[in-house]
Specification:
Blueprint lengths: L4 E3 L4 H4 L9 H4 E6 L1 E2 L2 E2 L9 H15 L3 E3 L4 E11 L8 H14 L5 E12 L1 H5 L5 H8 L7 E6 L5 E6 L13 E4 L15 H10 L62 H15 L2
Bound molecules: zinc ion.
């Protein structure tokens, strides 16, 4: 494998930052990917950050990495604690379904030199937690979460009334370690019931946030976008499965097939090299402890 070393420099983003990052609730949690009700798309999530928040988060990353090298040659292996929350008769995933999700993650992140290793699976039967995972978020995580900043606590429940999943960002770990993790709708796993969103890519997308990636349409056509050089600017989220769109004047067409956009699962094909580099930089800054 070709050895790649990313020198993280204090760049233009850091130069324009004027205040320390505000890592409040909005920063800590990102609810993502639309659910569909009656064929009508709900208007997305509560997660897109303000321009100032994104600038502050990217600047915080660069400050933490100042003088450090981010090595891209060695794989990151992420231990996964898989927490299945279920009712008496719904959401009770089988080991085969859990393993299929882990396999999907490993295929998706292979180009980012990152892999996932399932270290435990537990089942909790609680119909309130199952039906309202956002409402009981802190209670669920305080009881089930295991490990430190480098352990992925992945929860499944019936999330999908208006969103399909939600995630915390690594920048929020220090202030709110107790709610770190990713929650996805159990019907989005490979072979699940959610039309167009049942190939396991909701977990891929949400874990992208857990690893520090923003949506490619973050900030629309305004710099710094998502902070990644090789994801062209995009005015808004991609819906459905278009083969092409170009919504910003900057070079490049919209990254409609990127895992961090909102297209259907079968239209999502990959991460960019720049996203992989950002993941490794973020890992070094916030999760490699
Ligand atoms: Zn998202």
């Amino acid at each position: 494998m070709r050895r790649r070393v990313l020198f993280v420099m204090l760049g233009a983003v850091a130069a324009i930052i004027g205040s320390p990052p505000a890592l409040g609730r909005t920063t800590a949690e990102a609810a993502c990917r639309p659910a569909q009700r009656g064929g009508h798309r709900t208007p997305r999530d509560r997660e897109n950050f303000t321009h100032g928040q994104v600038v502050a988060m990217l600047a915080d990353l660069r400050r933490r990495l100042a003088g450090q090298r981010v090595r891209l040659d060695g794989p990151i292996v992420v231990p996964v604690r898989f927490h299945v929350i279920a009712s008496a008769d719904r959401g009770r995933l089988t080991p085969a379904e859990v393993n299929a999700q882990i396999a999907t993650l490993n295929r998706a992140y292979s180009t980012a030199t990152l892999s996932f290793r399932l270290v435990s699976t537990d089942l909790t039967t609680d119909s309130d937690w199952f039906e309202h995972p956002q409402l009981y978020d802190r209670a669920i995580k305080s009881q089930l979460s295991r490990g430190g900043p480098g352990t992925l606590n992945l929860y499944t429940a019936a999330v999908g009334t208006d969103v399909l999943g939600f995630s915390t960002f690594p920048q929020a770990y220090r202030a709110s370690p107790g709610i770190d993790g990713v929650v996805i709708d159990y019907r989005t796993l490979p072979g699940g019931e959610t039309p167009h969103f049942n190939r396991g890519d909701t977990a891929v997308h949400e874990i992208g946030h857990w690893l520090g990636l923003f949506h490619p349409f973050q900030n629309g056509c305004q710099a710094p976008g998502d902070g990644v050089d090789d994801t062209p600017y995009e005015a808004g989220p991609t819906q459905g499965c278009p083969s092409f769109k170009d919504t910003c004047p900057q070079p490049g067409t919209d990254p409609v097939h990127n895992f961090m956009d909102y297209a259907y699962d079968d239209c999502m094909t990959g991460f960019t090299a720049g996203q992989g580099e950002l993941i490794h930089a973020v890992w070094l800054a916030y999760r490699a402890k």
